[in-house]
């Protein structure tokens, strides 16, 4: 009996689509990251506006950036959260992460400005610039991995979908997301 149970568990584990799980975890994490970024900026809007005033941008553009930056981050989160819009969201997210990573690298280099202004909110405001660079680089790499996985899963989805329907598997959300 125990041997049969372990065999069943082993068979189930073999059927799990680990690429899809990793993809789902990364995409969900990115959507949550952008959502948190928006909440931390607009949640403490006076601090965010004051931080923007210290940025190396024209003062007449602060109002635009105040709405545009978190607005695009929110769009990123919503696009990544949607199944049909996820690919666009991942590309937009990657572009933003590359931009922020370059910004942090320039701030660390001291080539553009000596005083290093930061417009980050929440927990990110407490991070050092080096920590920001490491965190942003890691998120950029994970975002790139999610794009690659999206492409791989997209090319095999039709084939696997047809097979799973023929095999009589249930069509539940969890089953479709995790099993081959």
UniProtKB/TrEMBL annotation:
<feature type="transmembrane region" description="Helical">
    <location>
        <begin position="133"/>
        <end position="150"/>
    </location>
</feature>
<feature type="transmembrane region" description="Helical">
    <location>
        <begin position="88"/>
        <end position="113"/>
    </location>
</feature>
<keyword id="KW-0812">Transmembrane</keyword>
<dbReference type="GO" id="GO:0030416">
    <property type="term" value="P:methylamine metabolic process"/>
</dbReference>
<feature type="transmembrane region" description="Helical">
    <location>
        <begin position="59"/>
        <end position="81"/>
    </location>
</feature>
<feature type="domain" description="Methylamine utilisation protein MauE">
    <location>
        <begin position="20"/>
        <end position="147"/>
    </location>
</feature>
<protein>
    <recommendedName>
        <fullName>Methylamine utilisation protein MauE domain-containing protein</fullName>
    </recommendedName>
</protein>
<keyword id="KW-1133">Transmembrane helix</keyword>
<feature type="transmembrane region" description="Helical">
    <location>
        <begin position="21"/>
        <end position="39"/>
    </location>
</feature>
<dbReference type="Pfam" id="PF07291">
    <property type="entry name" value="MauE"/>
</dbReference>
<dbReference type="InterPro" id="IPR009908">
    <property type="entry name" value="Methylamine_util_MauE"/>
</dbReference>
<keyword id="KW-0472">Membrane</keyword>
<dbReference type="GO" id="GO:0016020">
    <property type="term" value="C:membrane"/>
</dbReference>
């Amino acid at each position: 009996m125990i041997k049969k149970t372990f065999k069943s568990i082993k068979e189930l584990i073999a059927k799990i689509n680990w690429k899809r799980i990793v993809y789902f975890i990364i995409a969900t994490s990115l959507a949550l990251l952008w959502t948190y970024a928006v909440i931390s900026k607009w949640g403490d809007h006076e601090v965010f506006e004051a931080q923007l005033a210290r940025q190396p941008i024209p003062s007449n553009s602060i109002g635009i950036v105040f709405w545009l930056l978190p607005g695009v981050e929110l769009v990123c989160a919503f696009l990544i959260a949607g199944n049909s819009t996820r690919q666009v969201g991942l590309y937009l997210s990657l572009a933003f992460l590359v931009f922020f990573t370059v910004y942090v690298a320039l701030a660390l280099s001291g080539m553009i400005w000596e005083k290093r202004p930061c417009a980050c909110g929440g927990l990110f405001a407490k991070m050092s610039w080096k920590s920001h660079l490491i965190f942003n680089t890691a998120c950029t790499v994970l975002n790139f991995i999610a794009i690659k996985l999206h492409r791989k899963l997209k090319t095999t989805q039709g084939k696997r979908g047809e097979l799973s329907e023929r095999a009589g598997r249930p069509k539940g959300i969890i089953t479709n997301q995790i099993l081959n």
